[in-house]
Structure formats: structure tokens, C-alpha cells
Amino acid sequence: MQNGQLLAAIDLGSNSFRLEIGVLEHGHIRRVEYLKETVRQGNGLDAERLLSQEAMQRGWDCLARFSERLSGFGNKFVRAVATQTLREAKNRDEFLSHAEKLLGFPIEVISGREEARLIYSGVVNLLPQSEDRRLVIDIGGRSTEIIMGKGFKPHIMESYRVGSVKWSMKYFADGEFSTLAFDRAEVAAKAVLDEALSLYPRNSWDVAYGSSGTIGAVTDVLQAAGWPEETISREGLIWLKEKLIKSGSVESLRLEGVKEDRKPVIGGGLSVLCALFDLMQIDTMHAAQGALRHGVLYDLLQREESTDLRSSMVTALGNRFAVDTAQAARVKQTAITLFKGVLDKSTCEPDRALRLERKLGWAAHLLEIGTRISHSDFHKHGAYILDNADLPGFSMLELHRLSQLILGHRGKLKKLEIELKNPEFMIQLMSLRIAAILCHARREPDLKGIQLKISGDNKTGFVIHCKKSWIQQWPQSAHLLREECIAWQKTTWQLEFVEMNGKTI
Prior knowledge:
alpha/beta
């Protein structure tokens, strides 16, 4: 990626939506523009985990405004990620389908651990290099991420369902601040965060950093009152809690440094932060400049420079399940060769085609991970693993797409009726299924006498052309390909098996 390239990251948080635009300068990203809107989408999630229409509309309105600023950006230079509220929301697809149209870019719902990884990356990329073992904490609207690492490498990453919006709604719902309310909120937070004691013992880290909303708000208040800059101390937290209790309520709160949009959630955020200080024996926490959105920007840079973390994670997962790498390589190469032959290059940009090929290659590599659980229905076991894995670098949707490719690479196609409506997914799946057939004997397939092509001008029809000599040499493969054509006849897509002389077999 060249110097001067603009990059953009959108963070759809539970409390705020943020847009960060930066420019690449010699391996570092300098801020060009930062926009933040308090959407408080987490407030719109009811007991049934359904987002209210009002909460969705607030999000849509914000993204429409962000879209105007992103006009002219290419897809590969923008990444939008959504966190805990949309991880929880049962009707997130309704929100996301319209949100993506308004924004003009895909929105990825990321797992808690992936959020933690990106937060750590954002924090450390904006800190001086150091050999310190760093503890990074980010208290969001509905989740709290805790990461421990050294240098640029995170070692332990976890996400906990406790946050400023969620705790404010639950323990400060009437906007009243009292000693009893804080006591209850802190005890409840400790109950959720208690397992962090064993993962992040005090002797395992040297310096604590806090990222984003709650930590930033608390730091601003303490600094305005004369406490040390960019630092939160245990004494400062006690002082601030006493100030809130003395004020009695959100409406009565008059405290320099507290922004109006932060007042309704400061009680919940502060109670969680106090619980963390007690549990993890933190005496001092430094306010970090980096956050999730910065991690997203640096991740974009990493993906563009062909050092994509996702590729190494696929390899690692394959190793964990003892994948036959030679067979995986055969299937991958065959699938990509077939895919290139039928992808409609007139409607698919080269960069997107390369991304689709890469994801097809990942699916091919992980095709047989389910065999380590059971050889019977191993594709179902493999799909389950992908749908439930925390794989750094991947969004939840990306993992689901890989799982569906693995699930669908054999057996009936009816189970993927919805996914098959997407032409790109369909071509990936068809290429993968045929590749698995051609490599079924676990040897290099003979591709000289066979081709997969689009059937004339028919965008829903495909044909496997075979030389008669190839059919005679590989009768078992030819039989399996005929069976494959029958399977596709039960979908809206068609596949024919044809001799090179044009005679239908």
C-alpha cells in the first residue's frame, strides 16, 4: 500500500458509532478525521434480545451521515465492524441489510475475542515500543474486553458481558446514584469478571492501560479536577464515586469534564471500572489513545500487505486438527483453477476476485477438520467447528461462510438453499465440490481433459466438458461428476456433463 493512501474504520459500538479516517505515512497511520455520534443502540435491546425500531433508526441515520464522508473510498480501504449489541440482537440481519445499503460498505459483526485483539492492536500501535507486559482494558457499552500481551502480540484475550450501558440500565435505571446502587453494581460486575483473576494475575503484567469511552470519560473528569493527566488512580475512582453519590442523580450531576452524552452511562461504567481495580489489584491505569477503530485501520494495512493474520490462523487450525496438508493443497489448487474459469470477470473486480479465491482456499484447507471428530458426516462436524471457533482476524460472518462451504462440499444441496441465492458463493461451492470429487483418490487430478465453463449466455447454467479419453481413463471420477450434475438439477442452478464432441452423457 502506498504512502498517502486514505483508510477508514467504522466502529458500531453499543453506546457510540465512530468513524476514523487516517492516511498511511511510512508504515504508520495519521488521523485525518474523526467523527463520533452517541447512538446508544445498546439501550434499544429488550429482554428478548430484539433491537427496537427506534434504536435501529438512530443507527441508520448515523451511518447515512458517515456514508457521505466516505464517498469515493474503495471497498478494500474501508472496514466497518459491529460489537456486542449486534452480537446479541436476534434481528441484527434486519438492521444490517439496510445499514449496509446506507453506508455503502459491508458491516462485519465480530466476536468478543476478535474485538479484544483489534483493541490491543489499536492501543499498542499508538504507544511507544516497550518490553513491558501490558494489560489493556476496554469497557464498552455492553461488553468489557481484557487483553494481556507484550509488544505487538496479545497473549490472552477475553470478552465479558458487562458494560457501561448495560450496567446503567440495570443498576441505575432511574438515574439515581446511591451507595447501595454502586455496591450492587460492583458486586454484580465482580461476579461476571471473577474468572479474570486466574487469567490475568497481578504478577503477569507490568503496566495497565484503559481504552475508549468509560476510561476516557473518567480520565477527563479526574484531570479537570486536578488529578494527574492521562492517569486513573484508585484514590481518584473513590473521589469520583463520592461525587456522583453526593450529586444524587444524573439530572443533578454538575461535574467539570463530564460530557452530556456520557452522563446517563457514567454510573454503570464507573462501577465496572471500580470492580476491575479491586479484582485485578490495579493501583494506576494509563489512558490509551488507541482503540478498536485504530486496530481496524492497522488490520486493513496488514491485509493489504499480504501478511493476513487469517491465513496463519487457518494453518494453525488445520494443524490442530491434523489436516492432511498434501490433500488440502490438491483440493485448494483444483478448486481455485475451476473457480477462475467460471467467475464472471465482467462483474467482479480483480481485488474482490482475489479475496474470493483466498476464502475458497481457506475452505479447501479446512475441508477435513471434522474427520478428527468422526469420519461419518465429517463435513457437518467441520462446519460446527468453524461456526463456533474464535479465530483471530475473522468476522462471525466470514467464519459462517467458511462453515457453509465445508458443510455443502458434499451431500444434498437443499440444506444451503438460502446461501445458493448468492452467485459468488454458488461458484465457490460448485468449484469446491467438483475439486473434492476430482481429488477423491488423494492424488494429483488430471485436469488436462476436463473444463468447467459457463453454459453460453445462461448465467445460471454450467457445463463440465470432458474428453472421451479422460472419461475412459478416469471412469470413477466421471461417474461421480455425473452424480454431481444430478444433485445440481434440484437447485435453481444447472450443471451438465458433456463430452468434448458435444454429446451429452
